[in-house]
Design goal:
The protein is of the alpha/beta class. It has a single domain, classed as Double Stranded RNA Binding Domain (2-Layer Sandwich), CATH 3.30.160. It contains six helices and nine strands; from the N terminus they run ββαβββαβααβαββα. Strands 1, 2, 3, 4, 5, 6, 7, 8 and 9 form a nine-stranded mixed β-sheet that branches. The radius of gyration is 18 Å and the shape is globular. About 5% of the residues have low confidence.
């Protein structure tokens, strides 16, 4: 199901429309209950976040690491509330070169697959995507059934950008935006089990974890997990 998480409720003077929407795609094995998501490890989130000025992008912001950490924490907390066992943060396990290389290699292989996921996410529903069984060599993943990859990209308009938006009657140019996605991968076979994409028109540098939590609570509503929504 493609869920509208919040119907637009306010069109402010700045022209910012606050809304959130999510699109989950489920592997047929997950839909049929042949594969369950019960114990997983979340790899560190990779996020880019930039300010957009009157003349275009002005570069990254110092809040990027904060947003990435908040994204990770919110996903971990929501999955835990839904009855999933979340293994230790992979940051903590990467205390030597071999561990760091293993994580970097896994992240890179996922990014290669993600190009196709982003273009044709419906392929997940036909079981088309896999990272290959090399994922089973990932030491941290040996004790779990699922790996979770997090990606995000956001933009925050400057006052100059907002002024241009007002002058050109283009409210969307003044709206902050963050697009994120979560991908659940079978820790043994590498098969992509769930691909979930969400969009949030909010300033994610403020109330960051709360805003992620609100979005993820609804975005994960239709993903089969041990505890259904409301049964926490």
């Amino acid at each position: 199901m493609r869920r509208l998480l919040r119907i637009p409720t306010a069109l402010l003077v700045s022209g910012a429309i606050y809304q959130a929407a999510a699109w989950p795609w489920l592997n047929p094995k997950v839909k049929a209950g042949q594969i369950t998501i019960a114990k997983l490890v979340i790899l560190p989130a990779r996020v880019s976040f930039e300010r957009t000025g009157a003349k275009g992008h002005e570069g990254g912001t110092q809040e990027t690491d904060h947003i990435a950490d908040a994204f990770y924490n919110a996903v971990s907390a929501e999955l835990s509330r839904r009855g999933v066992h979340v293994a230790s943060n992979t940051h903590d396990g990467a205390d030597d070169d071999a561990a760091r290389y293993a994580i970097a290699d896994l992240q890179s292989r996922y990014d290669t697959i993600r190009v196709q996921l982003a273009k044709k996410p419906a392929g997940v529903e036909k079981g088309r995507y896999t990272l290959g069984d090399r994922v089973a060599r990932f030491e941290t993943g040996a004790e779990v059934d699922t790996l979770v990859f997090l990606r995000g990209q956001g933009y925050l308009p400057t006052p100059g950008r907002k002024a241009v938006a007002v002058a050109t009657l283009n409210p969307f140019a003044a709206a902050p935006i963050f697009q994120g996605d979560l991908t659940f991968v079978d820790a043994k076979t590498g098969e992509v089990l769930v691909f979930l994409r969400f969009i949030r028109n909010r300033n994610m540098t403020e109330k960051t974890e709360d805003r992620f939590s609100e979005t993820l609570r609804l975005a994960l509503h239709d993903v089969p997990l041990p505890l259904p929504p409301g049964k926490r």
